[in-house]
């Protein structure tokens, strides 16, 4: 089994950085375990210690789905709904699955209602990982 230890910076194709492993520990991956996106794993295969490269992985979080945005939910129907403000990220539960919260973002709010977006924040974005391989064993 091949283990690759690397630092990476995740960014959108237009350059917006959403993650940088240099702020913490490097990532260690055993190739073939499918623990990362397939295109990232494919890009790491065959690299050596010291190699640096950019690995495009496409729309790894899928297309943006406007159907995943729920609109005009009355604040009074939600516990603590009066505290919801535009831009807040929340963990949302549903009556069908109250024990598994789903991340979502409040995309519009006024004094009576709000809209909530259940798309992954990177949905619809072309993703690129800039990697630096530290070791291969």
From TrEMBL:
Residue ranges of domain PPIase FKBP-type in the record: 1-94
EC numbers on record: 5.2.1.8
Record's keyword terms, sorted: Chaperone, Cytoplasm, Isomerase, Rotamase
Pfam families tied to this protein: FKBP_C
Taxonomy, superkingdom: Bacteria
Coiled coil, from the record: none
SUPFAM superfamilies found in the cross-reference section: FKBP-like
Major localization listed first in the record, in broad terms: cytoplasm
Annotated compartments: Cytoplasm
Molecular-function GO terms, alphabetical: peptidyl-prolyl cis-trans isomerase activity
Catalytic activity: [protein]-peptidylproline (omega=180) = [protein]-peptidylproline (omega=0)
InterPro entries reported for this sequence: PPIase_dom_sf, PPIase_FKBP_dom
UniProt family annotation: Belongs to the FKBP-type PPIase family.
Function: Also involved in hydrogenase metallocenter assembly, probably by participating in the nickel insertion step. This function in hydrogenase biosynthesis requires chaperone activity and the presence of the metal-binding domain, but not PPIase activity.
PANTHER family, alphabetized: FKBP-TYPE PEPTIDYL-PROLYL CIS-TRANS ISOMERASE SLYD
Name the UniProt record assigns to this protein: Peptidyl-prolyl cis-trans isomerase
Organism for this UniProt entry: Adlercreutzia faecimuris
């Amino acid at each position: 089994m091949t283990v690759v230890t690397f630092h990476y910076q995740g960014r959108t194709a237009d350059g917006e950085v959403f993650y940088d492993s240099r702020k913490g520990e490097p990532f260690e991956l055993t190739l073939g375990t499918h623990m990362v996106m397939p295109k990232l794993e494919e890009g790491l295969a065959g690299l050596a210690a010291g190699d640096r490269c950019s690995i495009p992985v496409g729309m790894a979080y899928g297309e943006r789905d406007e159907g995943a945005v729920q609109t005009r939910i009355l604040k009074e129907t939600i516990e603590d709904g009066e505290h919801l403000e535009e831009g807040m990220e929340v963990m949302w539960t549903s009556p069908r699955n109250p024990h598994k919260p789903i991340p979502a973002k409040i995309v519009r709010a006024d004094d009576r209602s709000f809209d909530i977006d259940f798309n992954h924040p990177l949905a619809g974005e072309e993703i690129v990982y800039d990697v630096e391989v530290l070791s291969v064993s």
